[in-house]
Amino acid sequence: MSAVENSASQETPNPKTDGSELIRFDGVTKRFGDVTVLDDLDFSVRSGKHVTLIGPSGSGKTTILRLLMTLVKPDAGTISVGGRCLTHQERGGKLVPAGEKHIREVRKDIGMVFQQFNLFPNMKVLRNITEAPVHVLGLSKDEAEQRARELLELVGLTEHMDKYPTMLSGGQQQRVAIARALAMRPQVLLLDEVTSALDPELVAGVLDVLRDIAHSTDITMLCVTHEMSFARDISDDVLMFDGGKVIESGAPEKLFNDPEHERTREFLGAVL
Ligand SMILES: Nc1ncnc2c1ncn2[C@@H]1O[C@H](COP(=O)(O)OP(=O)(O)OP(=O)(O)O)[C@@H](O)[C@H]1O
Ligand SMILES: [Mg+2]
What we know:
Order of helices and strands: HEEEHEEEEHEHHHEHEHEEHH
Largest sheet: 6 strands, mixed
Radius of gyration: 19 Å
Bound molecules: adenosine-5'-triphosphate, magnesium ion
């Protein structure tokens, strides 16, 4: 049994795997100035599934993930995570804009890994991973360190736990960032082009770790990637996004080999 399989059950404690809707966008519109980036967007991701978003540069893929992280707010529509609305909450029988506390609660279900790892430069690797579980989830230092050690084994970095991020390669830093996101035991992991800032020879190691996580745990994943072979490997569903909407979706075999939409054919022709 690999280290990944070994620790998988401990690392994904109670992700929902009942196939219920974990993420739902309902009529979501997002504008920046005069530009409508998301246009009445509907889509959903079921629990335990690995869904990949593909589409042209500047089409709004990162914006979708940033909305889920509540880093930006929609202009219209609703977003829910685990059946709880991210944008609104019920108060006194009425639906009102979500308050900070409500948003923080829903956000606990979501982990994100960014293109630029965003590690805390002044903290050693182990502390990068324990910081949020201790301060946000209220774990004891011992519990958080135990969890961090298991995750470092999962991403193959046990021997680097006492180093500072700048002492690691980009690929190693990105694997720390993946461990850090998993340490919060989110229901869903959002991945935004996590290998695009890496030197080509470091890409495979990070994708291997993600493949292991995808195949050996029940965590739900929503990935934005330009790595089409990775998308093909790990995805249950691929969503082709263009013009503010999902224009086509399906299993990777279908979408990559026999797309319905002319725009999808064009896009795949350019990137494959
Ligand atoms: N904070 C912002 N202020 C103004 N415009 C923004 C902001 N964030 C994104 N945009 C614009 O929204 C559009 C979508 O951006 P987004 O980053 O979501 O695209 P993307 O699909 O992730 O592109 P890429 O594949 O290049 O990463 C772009 O035109 C971008 O310039
Ligand atoms: Mg982007």
